[in-house]
Amino acid sequence: MDKLYTLTKTIIERLKALGADMAYCTASSGETREFNVDGGEFSLFRTLFDNSLTITAFIGGKKGSVGLNSFDEDKVEEACKNCIAAAESSTADPAWALAPDCSEKTFTKGAVTPDLNKLFDRSAELVDTIKRDFPLIVIEQMIVTHENVHSVYRNTSGAVYTKDAGYYNFDLMFSAHEGEQGSSFYSSGVICDNLDKPAIELGSIRKDLEDVQKQIYTKATEGKFVGTMLLCPGCLHDFMGSIVDKFASDTTILEGTSIWKDAIGQKVADERLTVSFAPHYENVVCGQSYTTEGFIAEDFDFIKNGNLESFVTSLYIANKTGVARAKNSGGNMVIEAGEKSLDEIIAGIEKGILVGRFSGGDPAQNGDFSGVAKNSFLIENGKITGAVSETMISGNLSEMLNNLVAISKERVADGYSVLPYAAFDGITVSGK
Fold first, then answer.
1. pLDDT at residue 128 greater than cutoff 80
2. Partner of 382 for a Cys bridge, out of 196, 277, 347, 422, CB 3.0 to 4.6 A?
3. Whole-model pTM above 0.85?
4. Mean pLDDT of the chain
């Protein structure tokens, strides 16, 4: 860590000597210890090392950035000069800025020191449990790691942020097979800062295995209907990510193409929906500590009780457009739980589809979307009636938020986010 501290200090001083008005850099050194399982058997253990350096400088409102994976003195010097050259050749923009009046802070998060023996035991336990409890599941690949990253961020406003973070990661790819029949592939994973619980009880791993084992035999959806789409937590995350991208991101706010561009403080969703970006939430592991501009990351509400509270915008976009800067970069999504259990939600759906995975093109700027529902189940008269083969679904993201049917009591915490199941009406389901 001392080397990173000294390196970032040298870089900032060098950039200033080369003419930079403002600058920031991050030096990181990472160590990954990894177990691999292929075809249900342990196949590899290795330790990987990674160094990375990002440098950004501003001269007269012009920005330049470079990145490299070496701390070699000559290469760092060349990178500083290239960064200045990139800035000098860019277009001036007075909106570029850094957080003012920063200070030195140290962040320590997660499991910095790994327990490799216990990690192997939990990994072997997971493999054995899957073989015993889910005999039709084939583990195509499982990668289990401990990640440890030391980093130092420094800028010309006085920020020196030292961070030491570590976490365990279980990442599985699997399918189910019986005879010549098989399901499609599915992935499930979680990060955690301790190994107190069996891995199969973390995140949605057990539920995902149960669902995929039921997807060996599928049937095509008959005809076309407008009904209810019930999203699994991971799929809900993807849909909410598209909503942020189309309605609240840097690009759409800058270009003025967002249909929510004038909607701060206004109702954009059902009042039962509250969505936050919360790196300090209790179930989030190693959440964001600071932004690239030098602000300390804080939790914030994106949508609260159906009202749009904030765009997910950087300081640069805030300065360009006059909107408020978001208090973090938009990771670590948390959605408040609802009042009904998943079983109660399913029981209330007359006709619909439970979607485990969605594959579609980029939604239109107005929120229209269309794609294929994968790893999904048909719901009829309050019951899941079977797995469906790939089925087209379509709707509108903005309308969907206002057609909320229910949010589940159950939530899945995978270390990155904390999310429930959520059901929405007005979705077109197209079968054969």
1. yes
2. 347
3. yes
4. 96
Break the chain into its structural domains and give their ranges: 2-213, 217-432
**What does the H/E/C string look like for the chain?**
CHHHHHHHHHHHHHHHHCCCCEEEEEEEEEEEEEEEEECCEEEEEEEEEEEEEEEEEEECCEEEEEEECCCCHHHHHHHHHHHHHHHHCCCCCCCCCCCCCCCEEEEEEECCCCCHHHHHHHHHHHHHHHHHHCCCEEEEEEEEEEEEEEEEEEECCCCEEEEEEEEEEEEEEEEEEECCEECCCEEEEEEECCCCCCHHHCCCHHHHHHHHHCCCCEECCCCEEEEEEEECHHHHHHHHHHHHHHHCCHHHHHHCCCCCCCCCCCECCCCCCCEEECCCCCCCCCCCCECCCCCECCCEEEEECCEECCCCCCHHHHHHHCCCCCCCCCCCEEECCCCECHHHHHHCCCEEEEECEEEECCCCCCCEEEEEEECEEEEECCEEEEEECCEEEEEEHHHHHHCEEEEEEEEEECCCCEEEEEEEEEEEEECC
Which tokens belong to 398? 């903005």
Q: What is the CATH number of domain 2-213?
A: 3.30.2290.10
